[in-house]
Amino acid sequence: MKNSIFLPFFCILPCFLKLASGQNDFSDCDPKCVFQIGNLTSKSIGSFPKKCSKVCSKIYIDETSQLSAAQLKSAFKDMKILSGRLEIVHTTFKNLSFLAGLQTVEANAFGVDISGNPGLEELGLTNLTSISGIFFVTMNPKLKRLKLPSLKNAQLHSPYTMTPAVSVSFNSPQFCLTLQEAKILLNHRKINSFVFFSKVCKPGNPTKKNCVVPKIGCENLVGDLKIGPKFDFKKVKTLKFLYGSLIVKNSSLTDFKVFENLMEIVQMNSTKLAIDVQDNKNLQSAMFPKLRRIYTDHMIGVLFKSNHNSLKFDFKSCFSIRNAVNGPDNHFSTLFDDLSCEDMEKLKKPNGGR
Ligand SMILES: *[C@@H]1O[C@H](CO)[C@@H](O)[C@H](O)[C@H]1NC(C)=O
Ligand SMILES: *[C@@H]1O[C@H](CO)[C@@H](O)[C@H](O)[C@H]1NC(C)=O
Ligand SMILES: *[C@@H]1O[C@H](CO)[C@@H](O)[C@H](O)[C@H]1NC(C)=O
Ligand SMILES: *[C@@H]1O[C@H](CO)[C@@H](O)[C@H](O)[C@H]1NC(C)=O
Ligand SMILES: *[C@@H]1O[C@H](CO)[C@@H](O)[C@H](O)[C@H]1NC(C)=O
Questions:
Q1: Are 300 and 332 in contact (CB under 8 A)?
Q2: Which residues, if any, are the signal sequence (predicted)?
């Protein structure tokens, strides 16, 4: 993942237009509901199949389209399912509420690309529940929110190794994903690769389950989890998802059994470690009971240092953690006292007389 982060941005549109243009197969569509032209302009909009609830097309709207939001709203009034592609680039729309009735985008090779729209503040596709193919929302400098409150299913897949299935990046510095959007767009079982230069929004009204500081009963923590010499471990018992760093320093922990429900750690800030564990002199095992995914854009991602001496022989924990790190290119993502998991495996046991 790390090597491929920057490549897609130079290649998104040219690559896709080339790769996807050969596929023009709407054979399972009502011929009356195929909009073959794709490019929506003031000339072509008259032939858009307005009355169809399922439209098959590679819809393309850009700055040359010369269409108002009202014209688009009228064209898309009945469209609930779009099979093909939706590309909206370089336009000046504030939101895409003209597509508020759209519920499903069915796509195989492409999907949704909303990029380079200088005025866009939110998508506002408020009825959109399912997306497939690829999902790109990039380089919209005013975009602060996706606003996809109904999104439930994202079965996203990129057929190209250098291009992620999801990229939500380079939008407004204030951009953030809601917890619900983050969970769906980061579902590793359904999405094969992602790039996020984003963050998760702090919940406006923290609840028992969604908190911004560790709390008893909390399941989703948005913020760093800092554990020091004094910490009430009841506060992490129920924690499942951490959107921030796990920082454990100078604690008395001997192992990580206290994180009994923790499944995912997501740290989208590339300057921050996802896991930072230092100076825990009693810590002898780094095995997390349930941790299955770590999202990190940091060069290292997971760092263990100066803990109990025996921890550097715990290569099994090292591999287990590293296997949870996103992407195939995670080889250097996990270090224990500057050792890789392979280095650790080669070390003899502490009492084995090295
Ligand atoms: C659609 O728009 C794109 C980008 O402006 C252009 O390259 C392409 O030729 C257009 N296709 C048609 C059929 O007009
Ligand atoms: C969406 O943009 C239109 C202008 O195109 C504006 O009238 C409308 O209020 C906006 N909707 C929201 C929810 O901001
Ligand atoms: C969105 O869905 C709701 C509930 O099904 C429906 O009442 C509403 O009309 C839809 N919105 C649009 C813009 O179609
Ligand atoms: C741990 O505590 C010691 C002594 O209080 C302090 O010198 C050290 O900086 C602490 N380590 C970390 C990582 O905070
Ligand atoms: C990432 O973390 C750094 C250091 O904590 C902070 O200054 C920066 O604002 C963060 N970036 C984002 C996008 O939140």
A1: yes
A2: 1-22
pLDDT value at position 23? Answer: 45
In the predicted model, residues of the chain with pLDDT beneath 50 are 1-11, 13-23, 352-354
Q: CATH for 210-346?
A: 3.80.20.20
In the chain, which segments carry CATH 3.80.20.20? 210-346
3-state secondary structure of 164: coil
* 269 CA to centre of ligand 5 in angstroms: 6
Tell me what pLDDT residue 191 has.
Answer: 79
C-alpha 97 to ligand 2 mean position (Å): 7
User: What is the CB neighbour count within 10 angstroms for residue 282?
Assistant: 12
Closest ligand relative to 123 C-alpha: 2
Instruction: Write out pLDDT tens, residues 222-247.
Output: 999 999 999 999 999 999 999 999 99
- Tell the burial category of 189 from Cβ atoms under 10 Å away from its Cβ (0-12, 13-18, 19+): exposed
Q: What is the CATH number of domain 3-196?
A: 3.80.20
Best residue for ligand 2 mutational test, from 76, 97, 126 (most atoms within 8 Å of Cβ): 97
Whether the CB-CB separation of 49 and 74 falls below 8 Å is answered with: no
Query: Do 222 and 210 contact (CB within 8 A), yes or no?
Result: yes
**pLDDT score at 87:** 97
User: Atom 4 (ligand 4): residue with closest C-alpha?
Assistant: 250
Instruction: Tell me which residue of 229, 221, 263 sits closest to 245, measured CA to CA.
Output: 221
